[in-house]
Amino acid sequence: MNPIGGVGRATIALITEIGRVSLFLSEALRSLVRPPFFWALIGQQMLRIGYFSLPVVGFTAFFTGGALALQIFIGGDRVGAEALVPRIVVLGITRELGPVIASLMVAGRVAAAIAAEIGTMRVTEQIDALTTLSTNPFNYLVAPRIIAAVLTMPLLVFIADIVGVFGGYVVATLDLGFNNAAYLQNTYDFLRTNDVVSGLVKAAVFGFIIAALGCYQGFNSKGGAQGVGKATTDAVVTASILILAANFVMTSLFFR
Amino acid sequence: MAESTPPAKIELREVRKSFGPKVVLDGINLTVAPGESLVIIGGSGTGKSVMLKCILGLLRPDSGKISVDGEDVTRLTGRAREKANRHFGMLFQGGALFDSLPVWENVAFGLTHGRGMARREAKGIAIEKLAAVGLNKDVGELRPSELSGGMQKRVGLARAIAADPDIIFFDEPTTGLDPIMADVINDLIVKTVKMVGATAVSITHDMISARKIADRVAMIHKGKIIWDGAAKDIDSSGNPYVDQFVHGRADGPIQMEVRR
Ligand SMILES: Nc1ncnc2c1ncn2[C@@H]1O[C@H](COP(=O)(O)OP(=O)(O)OP(=O)(O)O)[C@@H](O)[C@H]1O
Ligand SMILES: [Mg+2]
Fold first, then answer.
1. In terms of Cα–Cα distance, which of B177, B167, B254, B194 is closest to B219?
2. What is the dihedral of CA A184, A185, A187, A193, to 10 degrees?
3. What integer pLDDT is reported at residue B1 of this predicted model?
4. How far apart are CA B84 and CA B73, in angstroms?
5. Nearest-CA neighbor of A187 among A21, A52, A33, A69?
6. Atom 5 of ligand 1 has which residue's CA nearest to it?
7. What is the pTM assigned to this prediction?
8. How far, CA to CA in Å, does A251 sit from each of A197, A243, A256?
9. Which residues of B touch A133 (CB under 8 A)?
């Protein structure tokens, strides 16, 4: 094998893929503003994406908040820990960990489910059937999922923020001997609206990434059950990587 | 050319389609007259389904021209494609039923989603169409996964004709049905074409069905239409390929690609 040829082929493949994703996204964005809108489907997807993700998001947020409190307490060498722990917990959760962890969990659940469902519809020709019944598959399948994900992710992350801070509070007061009222007061005094809002903006962007990549991988799956399996894996992997990359970009934009 | 012939309902001119190096359609020329029932025959994997998908705009031909009612539809997209597809009904070879929806909503889909008809009204029509393919009202409430293969085929057929399209494509309408039900479906196709005046293009391997529903038969082989004639002439085509296919003989000019 010629290594230079290999690099060339990989580069071409990457550029082709970026082109295809861009085309898909432009078509998807157009479907968001072009009627018809399937309101019932948006509601159904909000339930599936948002409501049924609550338990998994809640648990991860709680334990992340708890672990964060422990680490800061230990790392802070107990010097000024009383003030440090609640502040860093609330900052870390609202700005970074809440949105990122919740979105990664939802990516695992939802991007996979979307890719599997749409992928199966692709290989069984159900997407072709939509077209022959004069229904645009982007309007019917993609738009409701993207709209639902962009609307529900901020709500989920808001809940994750509260549960995460609560997790830190529980560990700090029960295990580390913090004073209940002082901890809450410290959290409240230190928190700025922007910390929460920036996290919710991130959440909306991550919601878009999750739904769009799930749909993209599903639409482009081919070759039966194996192809759908690959689409599912690819959806979770690409969505997760993009979430972390987008998070870095947004953090450097918002907080500098 | 003289303008004496009526305009073709569907016309394909030199349509070519390849998948990578594999040439599937190699210059298809075909004309379907209004109200005609054309049956396409040909070996497995010769590109019959691909040809239908090109007409429907599900696949884009590499070159050539496809017109419907004299209008070029080869490269339509978006709204214009949706509008053109309102003329069409399609029965997919594999059914392609929406497994997330109950049977009646599948049948009514083109009415409720494609044309914005109210659900109640559409349900009534769906139940009528289900009855026409020999399925009763209760089946309407089931999911497609709860049906037998032959029942799925019939639901697909009901869905294809639900919106009273003026052009209907049937990809193997009788495959997987018992002989009696196959005959019911044949009658239904004949009735749909004759009563409603629809134009039908059917793909089939079932020569009994072909004889019953076809006004005209076209045979596709190696990406080209190699014979095209009236259904009554099929036994006297003088074409060795058609003869071999019609009589289902393993020996003849068509060699199946099987390893010995
Ligand atoms: N989406 C696709 N990608 C790549 N190859 C394809 C695709 N669709 C069809 N083909 C190839 O095109 C050829 C023709 O397929 P097609 O489905 O039209 O056959 P057919 O004539 O309908 O056969 P059958 O009677 O078995 O249904 C086959 O060799 C198939 O492998
Ligand atoms: Mg076929």
1. B254
2. 120
3. 46
4. 8
5. A69
6. B19
7. 0.90
8. 12, 12, 8
9. 85, 109-110, 113-114, 159, 163
Rounded alpha-carbon distances, angstroms, from residue B81 to A29, A64, A190, A222, B228:
19, 51, 57, 24, 29
Q: Which of B41, B46, B209 to mutate to test the pocket of ligand 1 (most atoms within 8 A of CB)?
A: B46
Q: Which helix (H) or strand (E) holds A203?
A: helix A193-219
Interface predicted TM-score (ipTM) of this complex, two decimals: 0.90
Q: State the count of interchain CB pairs (< 8 A) between A and B.
A: 60
* CA pair distance A164, A158, nearest whole angstrom: 10
Question: Distance between CA atoms of B33 and B69, rounded to whole angstroms?
Answer: 10
Q: List strands edge to edge, sheet with B71-72.
A: B22-32, B10-19, B63-68, B71-72
Q: Average pLDDT for residues A116-129, to the nearest whole number?
A: 95
Task: Report yes or no: B56 and B203 within 8 Å, Cβ to Cβ.
Answer: no
Q: Is the pLDDT of residue B190 over 50?
A: yes
* DSSP 3-state of B208: helix
Burial class (CB in 10 A: 0-12, 13-18, 19+), A254: middle
Mutate to test the pocket of ligand 1, among B49, B52, B93 (most ligand atoms within 8 A of CB): B49
Please report residues of B whose CB lies closer than 8 A to that of A131: 56-58, 81, 85
Q: pLDDT, tens digit, for every residue of B26-75?
A: 999 999 999 999 999 998 889 999 999 999 999 999 999 999 998 899 98
Query: Confidence band (pLDDT; 50, 70, 90) for B23?
Result: very high
Residue A140 is classified by DSSP as: I
pLDDT computed for residue A77 by the predictor: 66
Q: Supply the residue whose CA is at minimum distance from atom 8 of ligand 1.
A: B50
Mean local confidence (pLDDT), A163-187: 92
Q: Using the beta-carbon criterion (under 8 Å), do A134 and B89 form an inter-chain contact?
A: no
From ligand 1's centre to the CA of B24, what distance in Å? Answer: 8
Q: Does residue A36 have a cis peptide bond before it, meaning omega lies within 30 degrees of 0?
A: yes
Q: What is the CATH number of domain B7-87+167-253?
A: 3.40.50.300
The verdict on a CB contact (< 8 Å) between B53 and A128 is yes
Q: Which helix H or strand E contains B149, and what residues bound it?
A: helix B149-161
Kindly identify the ligand whose nearest atom is closest to the C-alpha of B26: 1
Q: What is residue B2's predicted lDDT score, i.e. its pLDDT? A: 46
